[in-house]
Hints:
The complex is a heterodimer. Chain A has helices spanning about 50-60, 85-90, 105, 115-125, 130-140, 150, 160-175, 190-210, 220-225, 245-250, 255-260, and strands spanning about 5-20, 25-35, 40-45, 65-70, 70-75, 80, 95-100, 180-185, 210-215, 230-235, 235-240. In chain A, the strands form two sheets. Chain A has a six-stranded mixed β-sheet with strand order 7-8-9-3-10-11, with helices on both faces. In chain A, strands 1, 2, 4, 5 and 6 form a five-stranded antiparallel β-sheet that branches. Chain A contains eleven helices and eleven strands. Chain B is α/β, with parallel strands linked by helices. At the A-B interface, helix 8, helix 9, helix 10 and helix 11 of A face helix 6, helix 7, helix 8, helix 9 and helix 10 of B.
Amino acid sequence: MSREPEALLTVRNLAVNFDTRQGVVAAVKGVDLTVRSGEVVCLVGESGSGKSVTGFSLMGLVDPPGLVTADALRFDGLDLMRASDREKDALRGKDISMVFQEPMTALNPGRTVGNQIAEVIRIHERVGREQAWNRAVELLQRVGIREPAQRAKAYPHELSGGMRQRVMIAVACALTPKLIIADEPTTALDVTVQAQVLELLFALQAETGAAVLFITHDLGVVAEIADRVVVMQAGRVVEEGDVRQIFERPRQAYTQALLAAVPDVDAPRDRARRLSQRPVISAQGAPQ
Amino acid sequence: MTDFILRAEAVTKDYVIGRSLLGKPSRVVQAVRGVSLSVAPGSTLALVGESGSGKSTLGRCIAGLVRPSSGRIHLAGHDVLQLTGVSLMSFRRQVQTIFQDPYSSLNPRRTVGEAIMDGMAIHKLYDAQERRARMQSLLLRVGLQPDHAKRYPHQFSGGQRQRIAIARALALAPRFIVADEAVSALDVSVKAQVLDLLADLQDEHGLTYLFISHDLGVVRHFADRVAIMSAGELVEEGECDQIFEAPRHEYTRKLIAAVPRPDPARRRLRQAPA
């Protein structure tokens, strides 16, 4: 057997607990995850499955009372559990970057988009204002924004949702990251805009060879982009496999039920058909 | 001629967003531009479009929540533009709306039981004891427990809140329900359960749905007929399978093609691993 390519990201027994007044809430309960260089891994689950918290914990974005523990958390040779804040800051935004679901809340409403891209560049590289600004304009052009020199002076609210997400992608790709964590980046977009944004993101991914950890609940998007799929439910990984195995031969009942619940846009209308014949265990239980 | 429960003719809705110094409209958004539609009783018409297409505004005009700028709407035996007093009460009983976010359409300070019984009390239907019994059987019917009646909306998950909204809509035994992105915010499995519930209720009560949605998978599964809207206009309307298999319009084709299919064998964006 040939040797596995070196893992870019290794996560072992990741747990995230939130200590609340009502007691400890375990959002992530012992997750193992591996992402190799250049690989697209989709983290799939319903709300409350812990998929977003997993992504946030990798970026060090879980704030108290959230507590992150793990047996191992390694990125590109660096032990993230032991790394200093300075080492982690050097990583975030450069080697690991993130695209969020809602660019309106992720972008600073009071600064032009050009400034926000230039800022990321200047934090990590010793370049002058003008040079950083010019690179920001170049990046806006690369993410398909017309008249980038003018648009760079725009504030986020002056752009459409699809444009804002392109700006987020420009920020995320500014320093050719090794890993992009994308948390539901197209969920809020119209379907035709979603197609354009996905096309852009994965054209850049192919160009730069970045690995992508793509967090989503949309199984259509997963089938379109994933190399490997990790299915999460109630804080645990229930199944993991390559994209064809997951869709064509799902092993776990939960994965099967999840796939069966997706209405098929290509199947003729059948008034008698019901989607939820199989018991689906949702993460959202009845209130106690 | 078929007896339609809904007939909308040349419905237009303009919003004035800017006025001159003298108060004359200077900037107008035409949210809905001359749309005509008919719906047969007991069927589901899906109103499909992307954000800004005018589908929700048209839905609100039809539900009598927004007054159209021009056009005619006849729904459940009422002229929607001429509703007053008794006819308004009768219309409100027969036409109910379910919104995307039940958390903002349920009063946070009323218990779930009160929310479901309020409509019956306002319309003076049944006596107090019958209202309570009916509320409890509705909770059971939508998959909740009678003792949930004492709780408040924030104590429920999104899927449960949508079930509450459905129970409340059903309390007045309506004939027509406008469901505006009613399952869009729900998880895959919860969405499946709520869609199944809506389908069963339609069969049981002969309900007619105006189902406003941007989710084409859900629409294919759920609708008898489909109306596609773009920029305030009706692009095309037809039987569900015809719209999906033989769309007449380029816009409809583009919309359907853009839906990502849950089938890795058909992917277009990236090659699947060997």
